[in-house]
Amino acid sequence: MIQVLDFLSENILSVYLLLFTVFLGFELISKVPTVLHTPLMSGANAISGIVMVGSIIFLRMADPQDYLSLAIGTLAMIMAVINIVGGFAVTNRMLSMFKKKNK
Asked: What is the pTM of this model?
C-alpha cells in the first residue's frame, strides 16, 4: 500500500493527465455519430501504437524490483495489443464490404 501511495505522489501530474484523458475521450466518443465509429477505429490504431511504444519505454526504465510499475507497464502493453488487433480486424472487415463479390 505504501508503494502505491509513493507512486501516486511521485507521478501526480501523470495521474491527473490520465484522468483528464479518460474523461475527454469518453466525452468525445459519446458525441461521435455511430456511422463514424468504424473509421475512427482505424485511426485509433496509430494511437495504440504510440501507447505500445510508451509502454515498452516505461518497462525498460522501470526498476526490476518495482512490481507496481512493471504491472502497470505490462497492463498498458496488453491493452494496446488488444486495441491494435481489434482495430485492424474491424478495419479489415469494413474494407471487405467494399470488395466486389465473385458470382
From this structure: 0.58
